[in-house]
Specification:
This protein has helices spanning 2-9, 52-66, 95-103, 126-134; strands spanning 39-45, 71-77, 111-114, 117-121, 140-149, 154-163, 168-178, 181-187, 191-198, 201-205, 212-216, 222-229, 239-247, 250-258. The strands form 4 sheets. Strands 7, 10, 11, 13 and 14 form a 5-stranded antiparallel β-sheet that branches. A 4-stranded mixed β-sheet has the order 2-1-3-4. The protein has a 3-stranded antiparallel β-sheet with strand order 5-6-12, with no helix packed on it. By secondary structure, the chain is of the alpha+beta class. It is 15% helix and 39% strand.
């Protein structure tokens, strides 16, 4: 335990990269949005970031307002305050997460990118941006199925996409996300909780870091089939596939599906 604490505490000197949350900035209620689409929030975070647990609570409150299947959150552990797994520490940092962190030029954590529009935002800007995104129309519909085989640990992923009007070019991204991951986390005053429960943790990019290039046509639906082997250590009853279609105009639609449940998501 002593070595674990020393390893994690070594990152405290980096806390100038950790974005503080002012005490007078709390979640502000806004009128109900007219839901036009689902919204993706990419939450950049780190286990050595003492302000990140409060940011996670903010996301949980926003999901309680809109629904976790409407406001789809993915916690991406990346950057200086994130930790990679070692023999003595359960770390949640990934190479793909670091690639996203660098690509979006995340200045510090906690920060979030909402529907890949508006850049990296601090916590106090999340509610307003999410509200605006829910009210934007989209002409992309997406359905998602997952079929899991426990013996082989294979996940058969089927994504159905269509556009309602003109053709749309973009990328289909598939991510593996896991809930209820027990791992260390620092809190204010350098308090270390060695068995903190982390939610919607980004684990892997199923079809590459930037997804699969597609052109959607209004004339027919596009079906994409992917077979994925669930990595060792990932619990199938806690794992999700998050699928989203994005382009230079941001995320056009996003859905999620628990991999151990073969029922079909309603098309959005």
């Amino acid at each position: 335990m002593k070595s674990l604490y020393i390893l994690l505490l070594a990152g405290i000197s980096l806390l100038t990269s950790c974005d503080p949350i002012d005490a007078d900035k709390r979640l502000v209620e806004v009128p109900s949005a007219t839901i036009q689409r689902n919204v993706l929030i990419e939450d950049f975070t780190g286990q050595r970031c003492i302000f990140c647990p409060e940011a996670a609570q903010t996301i949980a409150k926003l999901q309680a307002t809109y629904g976790a299947d409407k406001l789809i959150a993915v916690a991406i552990h990346a950057g200086q305050l994130a930790i990679k797994t070692s023999p003595s520490v359960v770390g949640l940092r990934t190479d793909a997460g670091d690639a996203y962190y660098k690509h979006w030029a995340i200045p510090n954590v906690p920060k979030a990118i909402i529907n890949r529009r508006g850049g990296a935002l601090s916590k106090d800007a999340w509610a307003g941006q999410i509200y605006d995104e829910f009210n934007k129309p989209t002409n992309v519909k997406m359905g998602l199925k997952c079929q899991y085989d426990a013996a082989s640990r294979h996940v058969e992923i089927e994504t159905d996409l269509r556009t309602l009007t003109t053709a749309v070019k973009g990328q289909l991204q598939l991510w593996l996300v896991e809930d209820d991951v027990v791992a260390p986390q620092f809190f204010p005053k350098n308090k270390l909780e060695t068995k903190h429960t982390h939610q919607h943790v980004f684990r892997a990019a199923v079809n590459g870091e930037w997804g699969t290039e597609l052109t959607l046509s209004p004339k027919r639906a596009h079906k994409e089939e992917t077979t994925y082997t669930l990595p060792d250590g990932i619990l199938p009853d806690k794992a999700w596939i998050v699928a989203f279609f994005y382009n230079d105009n941001g995320v056009q639609q996003v859905v999620r599906k628990k991999i151990s449940n073969s029922q079909t998501n309603d098309k959005k």
